[in-house]
Amino acid sequence: MPRIKKASRNMTTMKNNRTYGLLHTICKIAFLSCGTNFWFEDMDCPAKLMKIYNAIAPVLEVLVALFIMSHFGAFWTQPNLTEKQSTDRMLLTCVNGLTYLVYVNILYHKREIRELVMTLAVRLNEVCNDGTIEKMMLRRTFRYITALVFICSSAMFSYGLGSGIQALTTNATFTNMIPVWPDVEDRRIIAAAARIVHYIVWLFFLARVIAIYTLILTNTISIAHQFKHLCKYFEDLNDIFEGNGSQEEKERKYENAFKVGIKMHAITQWCTKQIQLTAGMAFNGQVIINVCSLGLLMIQMMSTERTLVAMMQIFLMVLLILIGTGLFLWNAGDITIEASFLPAAMFHSGWHNCTRQSSVRVRKLVTISIAQAQKPVVIKSFGFIELSYQSYVSIVKASYSIFSVIY
Questions:
Q1: How does the average pLDDT of the chain come out, rounded?
Q2: 267-295: per-residue pLDDT in tens?
Q3: Which of 152, 235, 285, 393 has the fewest Cβ atoms within 10 angstroms?
Q4: Contact (Cβ atoms closer than 8 angstroms) between residue 237 and residue 258
Q5: Do residues 277 and 109 touch, judged by C-beta distance below 8 A?
Q6: Rounded to the nearest 5 degrees, what angle is found at the Cα of 73, between the Cα atoms of 72 and 78?
Q7: Rounded Cα gap, residues 201 and 237, in angstroms
């Protein structure tokens, strides 16, 4: 697909398209969290704020990278851990390490994401944009983003709260994660300060992860609903023959409109390939996180003391893993489901109203288009796992199966 040029702000679509506003807001949040502009234009932020943020963004990037490296270094510098601490170290290293790879992969595909956002926000909505379907998309996006932010924040704060309660009620240190330094038994003031800084950096990292995952989810939901727009577009073509004008004019108008729909279908398929390219690492990582983390959490639940705080941490992490994986797999599966309705919409678009030579041309056009639309549109993980509601259940079952075999 050719590179998309910078859009003009005078386009009517931008003025009344709520999808444009949603994607612009998500990209602005991602910019303020990651320091990277995924929007196809410059961010409309105050110049002074931009100057300050551009200065501190590289520092935050280095801190986040050191934070991730600290997880792996702890395997060599922290040998004397309890069973719970050892499991927490393995769990959080797995989750944070893989999500950081997702973050880096998204930054690597920044240009492709800009083109994808431009296409979803402007180009497709110039032709296919039903108000009712757009409202459904906005509501779904809001619900899913709210669930993602709430679960991620709750899981993180539960670790901080649990460590704080343990430090106040026992002789333990405030250790919510196992860093490369200080030692878990180091009770010096500088060690306590280092742990607090480590927790604060974790907040910065979490903000970046939530922003990136939100961007991926929004793009995925938008593509699924774009297939809904296409179905509505083709079904409404039948109304052309109910309007005024001669039969010849109606047939010509129908044929031209159907060709426009074919073009929009091709662009939507391109968007699907782009989400596979740009978010493939996220899909792969989420499957690995689900299988490994649920197994570790079940092992931890069997060996940990059954206190309210300990069980709350495990429960929230299980919810985070299940909902996080579900958000990706459900919405990727929705793309497959919505795309499967398109051939029927093309068939009921009104081609049977055409006559004579127009009927011959249109029937060939519709037949080829339906054959193309019947090809399954599938998002895959690792190149062979088709993401859907069924695969989500299978992956969760696989996590328990691995736990039952190992434990």
A1: 86
A2: 999 999 999 999 999 999 988 888 888 88
A3: 393
A4: yes
A5: yes
A6: 110
A7: 54
280 close to 274: Cβ distance less than 8 angstroms? no
Nearest to 267 by CA among 222, 232, 333: 222
How far apart (Å, rounded) are the C-alpha atoms in residues 332 and 10? 33
Per-residue tokens: 230: 């296409």
On the question of pLDDT at 371 being above 90, the answer is yes
Rounded (10°) angle between helices 83-108 and 189-236: 50
Phi and psi at 92, nearest 5°, equal -70, -30
CA distance 29 to 108: 18
> Quick one: pLDDT at residue 5?
39
Cis ω on the peptide bond leading into residue 179 (within 30° of 0)? Answer: no
Q: Is 389 exposed, middle or buried (0-12, 13-18, 19+ CB in 10 A)?
A: middle
276 CA to centre of own chain: 11
Contacts 24+ apart (CB under 8 A), 185-193: 185/80
Q: Which two tokens stand for residue 63?
A: 């801190």
Query: Which of 58, 74, 149, 63 lies closest to 100 in space, CA to CA?
Result: 63
- Comparing 344 with 324, which gets the higher pLDDT? 344
**Residues ≥6 apart with Cβ < 8 Å to 43:** 27, 28, 31, 37, 50
Share of the chain above pLDDT 90, in %: 42
Q: How far apart are CA 94 and CA 290, in angstroms?
A: 10
- For the segment 347-365, the average pLDDT, to the nearest whole number, is 91
- Tokens found for residue 229: 């727009």
Angle at CA of residue 271, ends 209 and 351, nearest 5°: 145
Tokens of 189: 């003031």
Place of tokens 């859907």: 388
Return d(Cα 281, Cα 403) in angstroms, integer. 25
**Closest of 332, 68, 111 to residue 208, by C-alpha:** 68
Q: Compute the C-alpha angle 135/139/142, nearest 5°.
A: 140
Please return the burial class of 76, using the count of CB atoms within 10 Å of its CB with bins 0-12, 13-18 and 19+.
exposed
